[in-house]
């Protein structure tokens, strides 16, 4: 279902926002066990309000909390679930067969090794607390706007969290782990719906790795995909759609979407993956979701014309600014991109957002607050122009 009460071309975000210095300091203290999760959250409250202010100033219609409480979009669940442990790359290397090539891959892709601790399943999963209802509840107290919550997708979680030699004592196969993850994510979706959340976005960037791996069977650094090599692409894609549908099936009253990008850990575009969405679209459209949140500001993600066989099949969260550079896009360029999208989508189906978050990894923001704020403002201004053009002031 569409988010209720929205104007045409709702402006939203993909999720993360850069963290202020004081928050990073608190995060380090939390990770070193020097402060409690509750103490950390008190510090993060302030950062969430600052992230909200940037969005309000830019005219964002569906807001997020900037993922200020998360060290990144997939490992934050370590605080929330028993049975998951952060393993450093060094520890993980012990379980990788070809250590030299793994290391070379990380270097060539400019992977933020300091930021990477793979959340690894070491025991049966048991929720310690909701994954994100707490994040939602705080933001809800401070805004009347609809709220978007991002959750790591089930395929990403199942694939990245299961490490052979470590996880198989609790879950002999990755599929058995996936069953538990589906149950946890479905419960979370329902709890967020019941709490009044407008939109849940599942992040599955690792699907890019499935279709664009430079060489089959080779591990690439793609948002935690180093933990487990994947099977054949067709099989993996079918599994990803099946898992997603187990989560959302029959859950009404909340908008849902999936976000896939080609990596957002480096400003060196050459280190990120590239390729069009064409090989992924049938899978994404098989997922029973309202919206695909895709990056189209970067030319690395191919052309909107990939939607020609799938015109008007779903909503699109159209990426119209690149979070990874300092060049602030012009309002005219964003408007032109949206006009192009209207060949494949109805005006009611188009939501506007950056290509990805501005701070996927807490320790490695993709932009300054200032530039990120300016880019959001450009999207807000473009939405105003488009609403006048297509019938709503
Ligand atoms: Zn992304």
Q: Please state the overall shape, judged from the principal axes of the Cα atoms.
A: globular
**The CATH top-level class label:** Alpha Beta
The ligands bound in this entry are: zinc ion
For the secondary structure, the number of strands is 8
Helical/strand content category: alpha/beta
| pLDDT averaged over residues | 89
Radius of gyration: 20 Å
Given as residue ranges, the uncertain stretches (5+ residues, pLDDT < 50) are: 216-225
Number of helices: 13
How many discrete structural domains? 1
Query: Strand content of the residues, in percent?
Result: 5-15%
The side-by-side strand order for the widest beta sheet comes to 3-4-5-6-7-8
Biggest sheet architecture: 6 strands, parallel
What is the level-2 CATH architecture name?
A: Alpha-Beta Barrel
State the CATH topology. TIM Barrel
Question: Helicity, in percent?
Answer: 25-40%
Structure characterization notes:
This protein is of the alpha/beta class and 393 residues long. It is globular, with a radius of gyration of 20 Å. The protein has a 6-stranded parallel β-sheet. The chain has a two-stranded antiparallel ribbon with strand order 1-2. It has helices at 21-31, 37-58, 77-80, 89-93, 99-108, 133-140, 154-161, 174-195, 206-212, 233-248, 281-286, 331-341, 369-389; strands spanning 81-88, 117-127, 148-152, 199-203, 255-260, 291-294, 315-321, 350-354. The protein has one domain (21-389): TIM Barrel (Alpha-Beta Barrel). Helix 7 (154-161) packs across helix 8 (174-195). It binds zinc ion.
